[in-house]
Each structure stands twice: as C-alpha cells, then as structure tokens.
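Two proteins were folded this term; both appear here.
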Amino acid sequence: MELMRVVVVGISGTILATMLSKHNGGYGLLTSLATGCLLLMLLLGQTEMLGTSLRELAGAGAMSSAYMGRVIRILGLSCLTEAGSRICRDGGQGNIALKVELCGRAMILCAVLPAVGEALQAAQTVLSKIGP
C-alpha cells in the first residue's frame, strides 16, 4: 500500500512539473524538488522497519554493531550521493552533478578503508599462522 502512495505521488508530481515547466521552467523545477522531498519523507516512514531488519540480520550473522554501523553509513552515503546528483541533473547542472558524485565516492572510499585495513590485517594473521 505504501508503494502505491509513492507511485501516485511520483506520477502526479511528474505530470504537474511537466505542465508547469511549459509555462515557466522555474516552477517546474520547484515542483520537481518538492515532489522529491515529499517522496523522501514517505521513505523516512519506512526507515524504522529497515533498521529493525538490519539489526535482525546483524544478530543472526553475529555481525559486530561496528560493522553494521559502517554498512549503514555506506548505504546512506551512496543513496544521498545518488539523490543529490539526480537533483542537480534535473536542474540542468550536469557539471555540479559530476562533482557531487565524485565527492560521494571519495567519502564512501574513506568509510570503507578502515574495514579493508582490518580485513587485510585479519588475513595476514591467518596466513602467518598457516605458513612458516
């Protein structure tokens, strides 16, 4: 039922933005941004269920909460980067969109590097116990 609401808001916003942009491009862009914000607010209602599901997965796999926090942070960074980039593209600013994507990728890399370092350290410990 929630998905139906999202689809209706998305289609309605698209039609309205298209109609308004024919008369005044600025109003079309504002309508598009408002529709995007409304859709994000609908998504926020679902985040509690997402958090509960991720905590259950972490408990079932005996995953550390530090790793789960890192995974959630990376997912959040990627979603925000994509949303910000799309908004910039919708506004006709492809160059800014590329910079948003570049910054997002760099931040995701910074968030991933500590986990990669820990994984390499664990692999090195295991290999040192196996070999001479």
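Next, the second protein.
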Amino acid sequence: MEEAPMIQTQDLACTICKTSMYIEDLYCPECGYPEKGTEREVALYHARRAMQKNQNMGADKKIKSARNILYVMAGIVLVFGFFGFFEDEDVGILITNAILGVIYLLLGAWTSKKPLAALLLGLFLYLTTVIISAIFDPSTVLRGIIFKIIITVYLGVGVYSASSIKK
C-alpha cells in the first residue's frame, strides 16, 4: 500500500498580520496578503486596504454622529421628564423619562463596543416611544415631525455605517 506524499507544513508568518501560514500558501488565509505574489498583486492589496480604511473612517464619523444623537436624546428625555413632573406633578412621567434617558445614555456608551447592536436598539427604542405616544395622543404625530425625521435619519445612517464596517 502506497503512502500519500507528505505535505510540507513548515510554518511561515504573514508579513502583514503575522498569522502562521503553510509553505504552499500563496495568500495569507487571514488578511489575504499575497505573500508569494507579484509586485502588482502586492500593490493592489495595499491599495484595497487603503480604500477600506478610508471607508471605515467615513463610517466611524457617521457612527459618532449617531452616538451623539443618543446622548442628546438622553438629555432631552431627562429635561422633558423634569418639566413634565413640575408641570403636572406626575411622578410616573419623571420615572419613565428617567429610565428612557438612562437607557439612551447606556446605548450611547455601548456604541464604542458594539455600534451596530447599540444603534439598532436605540433606533427601535426611539421608534417605539414615538409610536406609543402617537397611540395615546394622536396629536403628537405631527408635533416635532422634523425633529423626529432628523433623529431617525441620523440613527438609520449610523446603523447602516455600523453594518458596513461589520461586513
């Protein structure tokens, strides 16, 4: 019975990411660097990485804008909670807005670790509160419509940017 030829598995390390590679590997399995490629392939690799970095920088700015919207939302909800409490002397308004404000603050802080999840939750929370307030008081639908659209757009763009980075 013949034995299969042994494949050389002496480890090499990728020049870029230092991932171990087999001698037979033409490209790094982790980052795709053409370890045994031509100068043109190496140049194309670096050009692609530079373009991805620029795209990520633009996405980071949009995520930061969405994070700031979450912080602004936290402040607005807290301020309106205090005004509602002092105007109606209703502790329920104060507690509800305090909880929402804290949630928006936590989501804003969480965007540095998990931007996609935090921004999606922030967007869903915002849309849910808008819908619930519209159910209880239909006149709130048109009040602050421009403000509602701006917040939704910023959070939506942040979600889109976070998902593009994840890809």
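The first strand starts at residue 12 and ends at 13. DSSP finds four helices and two strands in the chain. These notes refer to the second protein only.
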